[in-house]
Amino acid sequence: MLDLTATLNSIPLSVLLSGLIAMGVLSWLRPKGRIAFHHAKDNSLMLTKKSGKEQSFVDVCRSATPETCNLNPFLYNGHLQTAWTTLKHDNVPVYYKRRMFESESPGFAGHYAMDFVVEPYEMPTDPELLDQARKHTQDSGLPPRTSFYSGEELAALPSDDTKPMLVVLHGLSGGSHEVYLRHILAPLVADGTWEACVVNSRGCAQTKISTGVLYNARATWDVREAVKWLRKTFPNRPLFGIGFSLGANILTNYLGEEGDNCQLKGAVICASPWNLTVSNVKLQDTWIGKNVYSKAMGTSMKKLFEQHVDQVSKNPRIDVDAIRSINYLHEFDRALQCPTWGYPTEGAYYRDATSTDSMLAIRIPFLSIQAEDDPIACREALPYYEMTQTPYGVMLTTSWGGHLGWFEYGGARWFVKPVTNFLNKMAREIDTTIPGVVEHPERLPGNIAHHDDPSKDPDLAPKPQFHPMQRKLALPLGI
Predict the structure, then answer these.
(1) Active site includes 245?
(2) From CA 96, how far away is CA 111, in angstroms rounded?
(3) Using CA atoms in the order 382, 384, 390, 391, what is the torsion angle rounded to 10 degrees?
(4) Which of 305, 342, 377, 436 could lock 273 by a disulfide, CB 3.0 to 4.6 Å apart?
């Protein structure tokens, strides 16, 4: 979650309250939030319902979305919606059991944690289940309502049941404890219909790292191994994915890399920055973008670095003093991500990790949800036109909502409704064992347009192929 607390605490309370009241009063004059759908107009993806009837994917997304988006009028714009995420601490109790994984790829050696959603339980007193030896956990201990699986529980974990299962990727420096993802998980698992797990990025959610490798915006390797393990452990469960913010960018890259071989049946991309180059430029373009948002994210990443400095500093590519001197997110990426992964500049890193083109390689149904006043995943970076070129995706935009905010009057979060509705429709109404059928496969991205006309010359021009997943940085992804 974005940490704006220190910045907000520096502003006098009277000024904050006066500003909120003034904007709240003015906001009553504001039109209702606008909802728009962006998708291919002339090439549908047809899905088969369990009743045997067909339904277009666009209709699935539209029917899952509330007709209105009426948010809290006192949180008038994206800045207030975003700030409120750091001030409002909802009690959304989701309980987890943790399992550590060691990467099977020598190119990405290290450990990461997966937290599985379980029914509420009394926290154990067994030191091993709380990792009191701190083998895998930071000194401050595990996140709330989280403990390790026992050996007996792990042995009983595999199942042949057919419950849908959601795989969750969190934001920049977050983890399974983040409230925005718990808002999604709580209603899904409430009646026992769904299973869910969170793939924590390396070093996040109070985990230790065992090598100098953290993660980046195209770090798909742990997700890939996690999904393969889930497929083997729960062979009959339809798997779905959701990513938030940076996790949404990672998930999009993963889906594109997997292409036709993707094991997920559907996905949700929530508040993704998409074009990292544009998002970075916009952040630095305004005082609040640079000195509030970029600085807050840079501080969060520097804090994460300090939690693992003993391990990361062993990497001969890393200049610890350079990282400790940074203030902004792009400076952190320049000082740590670039030397770690071999990028010459942060711009090269952003161009390579951007997920806009990756989206064109996705071959499963996915819904993207974005707020156009998001100050971090900005409107200018959204793939409006690209969405019209693929039948597999629908982008739902709202005119306000901030970054992972969408707070309604009374405290509920609007985005929970379309997300949970969509996932339930895909799991309960759509027969995901039958692949979707593209109305005009010849119009998929990568195919060269051909207009038959006797008056035209034979097409003798070179026929290059567009590969949306062709990267500049070669990595052993193990696909």
Answers:
(1) yes
(2) 18
(3) 110
(4) 377
Q: What's the sign of the alpha-carbon dihedral 321, 322, 325, 329? A: negative
Is the distance from CB of 27 to CB of 399 less than 8 angstroms? no
Residue 381 buriedness (CB in 10 A; 0-12 / 13-18 / 19+):
buried
pLDDT tens-digit series, residues 417-444? 999 999 999 999 999 999 999 999 988 8
Entry pTM = 0.92
Which residue is catalytic, options 147, 245, 279, 368?
245
For CA atoms 257, 260, 263, 267, the dihedral sign is positive
Cα Rg of the chain (Å, integer):
22
The confidence band for 27, taking pLDDT boundaries of 50, 70 and 90, is low
**Annotation marks residue 222 as catalytic:** no
User: Secondary structure of the chain in the HEC alphabet?
Assistant: CCCCHHHHHCCCHHHHHHHHHHHHHHHCCCCCECEEEECCCCCCEEEEECCCCEEEHHHHHHHHCCCCECCCCCCCCHHHHHHHHHHCCCCCCCEEEEEEEECCCHHHCCEEEEEEEECCCCCCCCCCCCCCCCCCECCCCCCCCEEECCHHHHHCCCCCCCCCEEEEECCCCCCCCCHHHHHHHHHHHCCCCCEEEEECCCCCCCECCCCCCCCCCCCCHHHHHHHHHHHHHCCCCCEEEEEECHHHHHHHHHHHHHHHHCCEEEEEEECCCCCHHHHHHHHHHCHHHHHHHHHHHHHHHHHHHHHCHHHHCCCCCCCHHHHHCCCCHHHHHHHHHHHHHCCCCHHHHHHHHCCHHHHCCCCCCEEEEEECCCCCCCHHHCCHHHHCCCCCEEEEEECCCCCCCCECCCCCECCHHHHHHHHHHHHHCECCCCCCEECCHHHCCCCCCCCCCCCCCCCCCCCCCCCCCCCCCCCCCCC
The residue with greater pLDDT, 76 or 452, is 76
Q: Which of 44, 136, 374, 399 is catalytic?
A: 374
Q: Is a pLDDT exceeding 60 seen at residue 1? A: no
Q: Is 357 an active-site residue? A: no
Strand order in the sheet with 45-48: 54-56, 45-48, 437-438
Q: What is the pLDDT of residues 37-80, one digit of tens each?
A: 999 999 999 999 999 999 999 999 999 999 999 999 999 899 99
